[in-house]
Amino acid sequence: SQMLARAGGARPLFALAISAGAMTCATSLAWCQSTVMGTPRSLASKMGARTTKPTGVVTEFAALRGGRGIGSASLIIAATASAATALVRGMDRRRRHLNRGATTRRAAPGGFSLKSLFSERRGFIKRRPYPEGMEEVGDSLWFEVTLEKPLGFRLADGPDGPGRGVGIAEIGGGSSGELLERVCAEGAAPGNYLQEGDELQEVNGQSINGDQDTAVGMIMQAEGPVTLTFSRSSKGSITIAFPNGSIVTAPRQALLKQIAEKAGYDSGCTCKNGRCGKCWHEDPATGELYMLPINCPGIVPSIFRKRQEADRGAEADFESWVPLRLKPCPERFKRFMATDGKSEE
Question: 123 with 303: CB under 8 angstroms?
Fold first, then answer.
């Protein structure tokens, strides 16, 4: 059964061949039972099956018959049923696997659309690719940015103290702030940017050895544009761009409503369950619906809402190398109310 389930998920025709072979083997086994062991005796007992939980075709059907043995016809039916069930399961697994990459079709206005029920991402698409030049090193992402002075960020020692790591404590303008604004603009092409928490590794290709004084000295001595190499946790904080122009870096598990308040963005939301409509925002890049009092930036909302059904694996994590852009979507809330809550998740 396990072989057929795997084969059905990979190549249905190959699984059909295995199914036919299984039925042939079952017929031969039944003939051996009647000619060698004798029909009245239990084939399961001949094989030493004494477990309380029957496993496999033979012992399962022996248990159903109360240990009285299996006739030839019963054995053939058992093998055929098991093979067919495994084949169907395997083909269904393949269908679900292929559907993961399928593009949701749009229905005509006013008609039912799968997109109205399941958001475009739904966790069934691959994570978005890294920007050009970004590389994965263990659990970190390494990338370079070339900036003009003034750089516009403030460095600070890491949590382990001086000489053991240097990171960005604040971005306050300069060329790093301009870079962040460009990447966070709606419709902007993917690119590397800086955010609070990024760890500085190199200046113009030279390691700073985790020392802040060394990093500052190398930056001060550099002439012209400075090429900086940073690292960021692949499951680190998320940069969020709010409709009022505020751009903040926030922990993955923080509620968006709390982050918005700290960023000075007032959506007018007064509810706690996403029913006022003013808290409804969407990410234009993915079509994902975010409700400020409910959702956090680190988990893809459609998977969060379907956590009872979906496997919240790596695909549930929002990419730390892509900014989360939010804009109000009152029209989606109106459609939701007009259809008695059936047009959205």
Answer: yes
Paired strand residues for 325: 241
Count Cβ atoms within 10 A of the Cβ of residue 235 and give its class: 0-12 exposed, 13-18 middle, 19 or more buried: middle
Q: Are 17 and 96 in contact (CB under 8 A)?
A: no
Q: SS3 for 299?
A: strand
CA distance 269 to 257: 9
User: Edge-to-edge strand order for the sheet containing 247-250?
Assistant: 247-250, 238-241, 324-325
Token digits of residue 43: 């084939």
Instruction: Using alpha carbons only, give the angle 15, 18, 24 rounded to the nearest 5 degrees.
Output: 145
Q: What is the mean pLDDT of residues 255-279?
A: 94
| Greater model confidence, 323 or 14 | 323
Residue 82 sits at φ, ψ, to 5 deg, of -65, -45
Beta-bridge partner residues of 147: 226
What is the Cα 3 distance to its own chain's centre? 28
Residue 325 in tokens: 């852009």
How large is the angle between the packed helices 2-10 and 12-32, nearest 10 degrees?
160
Q: Long-range CB contacts (< 8 A, 24+ apart) of 262-269?
A: 267/292, 267/328, 269/293
Report, in this order, helix, strand and coil percent for the chain, each rounded to 5.
35, 15, 45
- Model pTM? 0.63
C-alpha distances (whole Å) from 263 to each of 222, 273, 278, 289 are 34, 21, 17, 20
Tokens of 213: 């004084």
Q: How far apart are CA 94 and CA 147, in angstroms?
A: 48
Return the pLDDT at 64. 31
Rounded to an integer, what distance in angstroms lies between the CA atom of residue 8 and that of residue 91?
5
